[in-house]
């Protein structure tokens, strides 16, 4: 009776815990509902940093399941991948920033018409204008 | 010198687009526990922030803090924060060694005199034990005092540097002291933990980078943004505590269901740290989520507070022997009092008869 | 385990959980045993012949005094039943709050089931409310006030403070103090209770049974209904 055989090991299946246990999904959905109402009434956008909310195992997945998949999905590559997608509720966007090694660096829910990161950024546009002008000049036109 | 560049310059040199920069700022704000509405402020500040020179001195330590920080290092956002500072001396991480490394430190200290950030991990042996921890023939006490003179601020990384930690644990064989015990004329930020949460350290560095100031600190010198609330109040298992559902052992039904670990000695109610929200290993998990109570490692003298597995409400009431002696003493006093009373009674009766 | 409890920079909570409580327990045990021994050994010479059985009279009184005497019922019914409510609430909070049970389990070696915090909060609030009402009554009723000694006020405060500090720690309404400080004050208030207990009116918790018995026995001997 020595070595590893002496240690009781129980292999857990990946089954999620029952829904009612970790109840962070529901208050967040209510918060999102209020934010949506504000957007509709006054056009005021809201950003929720869901990565810094205490969540139990499976909580994040349940929230994502509740929000579901919408029509729009976009990705960009800058300091690792970022995925921006609309949830099944229009105007509720899920933004996931991944770092270079695929880990989640930040996770936000934006309640807005268009997430600001989807728009071209002024600095990048200015740099692009310059680059295009240079390219045309270099081509002799 | 690298320290003269702005962080914006460094990021652009890495080929970071504006989108990437905004992403970096959003993650940094999140890391600093700032609300998302602060992202644009953070962006403006980072753009123009100068890269601070950082000198990291390891003293009486186990390198666990450095290990923890570097585990989050490679191509992550924390890594970028590290790239945004100019880490001029860290003898575990730097390529140079021996005299060249020491020269680099001296040079960085001279060039940035009054402006560099001094990071310290490990406690410092003092008095007759001063020489028990040395680097390159210098005692750590003298190194700390020298380096602190020219520092703008000091960050004590880990519980040893912040509060003395394990080396200072009873009976403190090297008379170990924390940085704040020895240096009193510089602003000191304590980032305790054994090891500290890497994201918290980078968050503190980011704050210094962005605002150029010391964050708001609690009475133990810890940044309020990360150490403002105790583990118990932010714990996802808190509802079980309220409902009175506890794991009684580490392998019972309650433990499997993820019930509260209070009965197994969790020190969450008196421990202030960011584990419950920031978590470890890129937000994967943290000790309580993995089924073990909080040890309270970010608190002063956590090593001396009795067993990690003793419930917080179980006090140190003594032992049966002491109580037995107390009872015997009480009985003796009671017998004496009764004898005295009977004596008086007898006397009174005799007087009555007479 | 106890040796490791003294170290430099010991916090208030460490002091409260350790040395303060330990000394309080010692004083408590000495005091209780002392006073109980002295009481049980005290006797008076029975000069007159017995008119009834002292033992059965004593036993009977243990029970009959648990309900208000019929003749007095009208006047004392409020304090009698609020007293019951207070003591029941107090014991529920003391024994069935999980951290409290763990405190006793550590001493006794065995535990028991506990109640959800919602119930404990309810009983704490009720208990504190009754204590406050009884104090107000004591202060406002001129006869009661005349009968009240400093011992009553101190015993009231000593009994009230553990509830106050306990609910402050539990609800985090700490008036600017840190949670650990309030938790330490809770332990210290219990230490104060343990120290005061054998020497003040709180000792009624122990004395109630022997003193009832003695009164009943004495009355029965004389053939008087107690």
Keywords:
heterotrimer, B: alpha/beta, Rossmann fold, Cytochrome-c3 Hydrogenase, Chain A, domain 2, 3 domains, elongated, C: 226 residues, mainly alpha, disordered N terminus
Task: Explain this structure.
The complex is a heterotrimer of chains A (141), B (354) and C (226). The radius of gyration of chain A is 22 Å and the shape is flat. Helix content of chain A is 31%, strand content 21%. The model of chain A is unreliable at 13-21 (pLDDT under 50). Chain A is of the alpha+beta class and 141 residues long. The N and C termini of chain A lie far apart (84 Å). Chain A has one domain: Ribosomal Protein S8, Chain: A, domain 1. Chain A has helices spanning 25-42, 59-67, 122-138, and strands spanning 46-49, 73-77, 81-86, 92-98, 104-111. Chain A is built from 3 helices and 5 strands; from the N terminus they run αβαββββα. By secondary structure, chain B is α/β, with parallel strands linked by helices. Chain B folds into 3 domains: 51-225, Rossmann fold, CATH 3.40.50; 231-304, Cytochrome-c3 Hydrogenase, Chain A, domain 2 (Irregular); 322-354. In chain B, strands 2-1-3-7-9 form a 5-stranded parallel β-sheet, sandwiched between helices. A two-stranded antiparallel sheet of chain B has the order 4-8. Chain B has a two-stranded antiparallel sheet with strand order 5-6. In chain B, helix 4 (64-71) packs across helix 11 (198-211) and helix 5 crosses helix 11 (198-211). Chain C has 226 residues and is an all-alpha fold. Chain C contains 9 helices and no strands. The radius of gyration of chain C is 21 Å and the shape is globular. Chains in contact: A-B, B-C.
């Amino acid at each position: 009776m020595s070595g590893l055989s002496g240690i009781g090991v129980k292999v857990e299946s990946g089954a999620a815990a029952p829904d009612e246990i970790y109840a962070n999904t529901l208050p967040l959905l209510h918060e999102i509902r209020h934010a949506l109402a504000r957007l509709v009434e006054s056009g005021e956008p809201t950003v929720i940093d869901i990565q810094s909310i205490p969540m139990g195992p499976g909580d994040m997945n349940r929230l994502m399941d509740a929000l579901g998949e919408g029509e729009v999905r976009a990705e960009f590559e800058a300091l690792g991948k970022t995925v921006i997608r609309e949830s099944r509720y229009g105007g509720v966007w899920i933004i996931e920033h991944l770092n270079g090694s695929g880990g989640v660096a930040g996770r936000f829910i934006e309640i807005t018409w268009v997430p600001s990161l989807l728009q071209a950024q002024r600095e990048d546009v200015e740099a692009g204008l310059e680059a295009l002008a240079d390219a045309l000049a270099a081509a002799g036109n | 010198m690298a320290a003269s560049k702005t962080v914006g310059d460094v990021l652009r040199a890495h080929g970071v687009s504006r989108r990437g920069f905004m992403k970096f700022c959003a993650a940094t704000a999140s890391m600093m526990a700032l609300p998302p509405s602060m992202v644009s402020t953070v962006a403006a500040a980072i753009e123009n922030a100068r890269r601070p020179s950082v000198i990291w001195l390891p003293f009486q330590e186990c390198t666990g803090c450095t290990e923890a920080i570097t585990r989050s290092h490679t191509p992550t956002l924390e890594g970028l924060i590290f790239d945004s500072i100019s880490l001029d001396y860290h003898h575990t991480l730097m390529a140079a060694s021996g005299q060249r490394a020491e020269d680099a430190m001296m040079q960085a200290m001279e060039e940035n005199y009054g402006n560099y950030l001094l990071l310290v991990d490990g406690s410092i042996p003092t008095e007759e034990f001063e020489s028990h921890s040395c680097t390159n023939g210098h005692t750590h006490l003298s190194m700390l005092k020298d380096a602190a003179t020219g520092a703008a601020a000091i960050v004590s990384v880990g519980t040893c540097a912040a509060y003395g930690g394990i080396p200072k644990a009873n009976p403190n064989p090297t008379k170990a002291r924390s940085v704040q015990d020895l240096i009193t004329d510089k602003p000191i930020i304590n980032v305790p933990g054994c090891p500290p949460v890497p994201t918290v350290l980078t968050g503190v560095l980011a704050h210094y980078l962005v605002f150029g100031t010391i964050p708001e600190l609690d009475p133990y010198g810890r940044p309020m943004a990360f150490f403002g609330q105790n583990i118990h109040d932010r714990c996802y298992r808190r509802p079980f505590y309220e409902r009175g559902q506890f794991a009684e052992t580490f392998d019972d039904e309650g433990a499997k269901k993820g019930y509260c670990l209070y009965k197994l000695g969790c020190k969450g109610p008196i421990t202030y740290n960011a584990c419950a929200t920031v978590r470890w290993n890129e937000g994967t998990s943290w000790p309580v989520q993995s089924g073990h109570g909080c040890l309270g490692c970010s608190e002063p003298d956590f090593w001396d507070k009795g067993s990690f597995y003793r419930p917080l409400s179980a006090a140190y009431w003594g032992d049966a022997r002491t109580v037995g002696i107390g009872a015997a003493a009480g009985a003796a006093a009671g017998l004496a009092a009764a004898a005295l009373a009977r004596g008086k009674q007898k006397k009174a009766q005799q007087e009555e008869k007479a | 385990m106890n040796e490791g409890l003294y170290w430099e920079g010991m916090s208030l909570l460490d002091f409260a959980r350790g040395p303060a409580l330990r000394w309080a327990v010692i004083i408590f045990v000495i005091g209780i045993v002392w006073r109980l021994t002295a009481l049980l050994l005290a006797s008076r010479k029975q000069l007159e012949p017995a008119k009834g059985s002292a033992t059965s009279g004593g036993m009977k009184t243990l029970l009959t005094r648990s309900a208000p005497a019929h003749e007095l019922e009208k006047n004392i019914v409020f304090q009698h039943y609020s007293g019951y409510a207070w003591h029941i609430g107090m014991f529920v909070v003391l024994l069935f709050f999980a951290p409290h049970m763990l405190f006793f389990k550590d001493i006794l070696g065995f535990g028991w089931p506990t109640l959800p915090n919602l119930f404990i909060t309810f009983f704490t609030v009720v208990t504190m409310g009754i204590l406050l009402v009884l104090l107000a009554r004591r202060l406002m009723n001129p006869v009661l006030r005349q009968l009240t000694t400093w011992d009553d006020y101190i015993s009231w405060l000593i009994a009230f403070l553990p509830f106050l500090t306990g609910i402050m720690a539990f609800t985090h309404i700490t008036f600017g103090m840190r949670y650990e400080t309030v938790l330490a004050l809770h332990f210290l208030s219990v230490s104060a209770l343990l120290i005061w207990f054998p020497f003040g009116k709180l000792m009624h918790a122990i004395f109630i049974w022997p003193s009832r018995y003695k009164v009943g026995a004495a009355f029965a001997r004389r053939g008087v209904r107690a």
